[in-house]
Amino acid sequence: MMDLHEQINLVDSNKKLAEFVEALRNDLLSNPEDWENTRLDLFLEAMAAWVHSMENVYKNTGREFPNQPSWKMIADILYAAKGYE
After folding, report:
1. Rounded (to 5) percent helix, strand, coil in the chain
2. Would you say which domain of life the source belongs to (predicted)?
3. Which one of 17, 24, 63, 84 has the fewest CB atoms closer than 10 angstroms to its CB?
4. Rounded distance, CA 84 to CA 11, Å?
């Protein structure tokens, strides 16, 4: 089975995003020790912080920051909130 980070690259539609969100949930239930933000309030706080800094994150990882969000970008945000501090 592919890890969550690899699954992000498959997210290109609302259906694939829904599948990714389900995979995130399953990962949280199966591996809570791998998550920094296991409570909704912490997850949302981390998500907001990552969205505020995501332009720099994209730049620092050699990716172009898109003008329009994509399904994949939403998956990136959700994945980042798993462990962003």
Report:
1. 70, 0, 30
2. Bacteria
3. 63
4. 20
Question: What is the number of helices (H) and of strands (E) in the chain?
Answer: 4, 0
Element (H, E) at 43: helix 40-60
CA dihedral 70, 76, 78, 82 (to 10 degrees): 180
Report the pLDDT averaged over residues 55-72: 92
- What spatial distance separates the first Cα and last Cα of the chain, rounded to whole Å? 27
3-state secondary structure 51-68: HHHHHHHHHHCCCCCCCC
Q: Left (φ > 0), alpha (ψ -120 to 50) or beta: where does 25 sit?
A: alpha
pLDDT band at 1 (very low <50, low <70, confident <90, very high): low
